[in-house]
Amino acid sequence: MNIKTKISRLLRQEQTKAEEKLWKYLRDRRYNGLKFRRQHPIKNYIVDFINIENQIIIELDGKYNNDILQKEKDELRDIHLETLGYKVLRFENKIVFKNPELIFNSIKKNIKSSESLPLPQGEGWGEGNAKSHPHPNLLPQGRRDFTVLSTKKLSTAQKELLLNSGIGFVEYNAIEIELLPVNFSQNIQNAIFTSKNAVRAVFNENSKSLPLLWERAGVRACCVGENTKKLLEENGLKVVETAQNASDLGEIISKNYKNEQFFFFCGNLRRDELPSILKENNIQFEEVIVYKTHQKPKKFDRTFDGIFFFSPSGIYSYTSDNIIGESVAFCIGNTTASEAKKYTNNIIVANKPTVENVIVQAVKYFDKRI
């Protein structure tokens, strides 16, 4: 028995109340004679409910699905499943109890027409068999003609997101971060972080004095990005303000903390937007350089369909030896996009400043190009 089958069986034994309720409606062909399976493995996923004949998947979402990072994972998961020909119907748990007809109506709308040949009972589309797939032009290998360049090394999970979508990729680190020892003895109440690198530097094992100060009650942090917030909270710091970019954070601080003093922990190549806004609004702050960014230029003798950029420094490094040309520049945020505009107008900006969302934008873009 493989690991996916074991997990599926375990999940069936530990159904949520919403899953248990919906299964009573769907099991034994109770709804419209349709055969549904529960906790069914597909590729790298286990879906809540599936009707293989009509390629319908039903996913029930709990509170944890509202987490911003989980939403991105769910969105990518749905995109991957839809490239395999499935229709993903996603509902909140409460719908099962308050308005199950909404689920049934959605199922009914997505039942294939009578012109479609049904599958033999209990059978599914053969994985990897393009001729038997209901939408062969949507198979992931259809995207193999698209290749992107990532200007930072990706995690294993992030690589899998691309590979599962059938997008080829090349990766390298366009910049290198040097964390500096932080010997900081001043008492603080408010700290600003615009990157995870600054957080890592502050909580680096070489920084002996500063981490002790974070344990003081009342120390507050303002930051850019949900991932930066998460890293700060993991290190015990209270985050009171979060924004999508440095400019928005500057506006929030200027509006809500007019009489406060801040320490801005940043890199040696930090952008001017946030400091400029704070100065214009007479907000007192002191910069503390906690890391250095070093460019690592590399020449590429090929053209990529897309390039992932995660910082202005990454753009500086890449363009020192290459041109963006006709490639689509997928940027992690507006600050990075502003730098990219110096070299191209073919730019797509992530909805949220995360690597995963950059990948989401690329998958959506190339999905339309198939």
Automatic annotation (TrEMBL):
Residues 160-358 form the Tetrapyrrole biosynthesis uroporphyrinogen III synthase domain. Residues 5-111 form the DUF559 domain. It comes from the Bacteria. Coiled coil: none annotated. InterPro entries: 4pyrrol_syn_uPrphyn_synt_sf, 4pyrrol_synth_uPrphyn_synth, DUF559, Endonuclease_DUF559_bact, Restrct_endonuc-II-like. PANTHER family: BLL0828 PROTEIN (PTHR38590). This is DUF559 domain-containing protein. It comes from Aquimarina rubra.
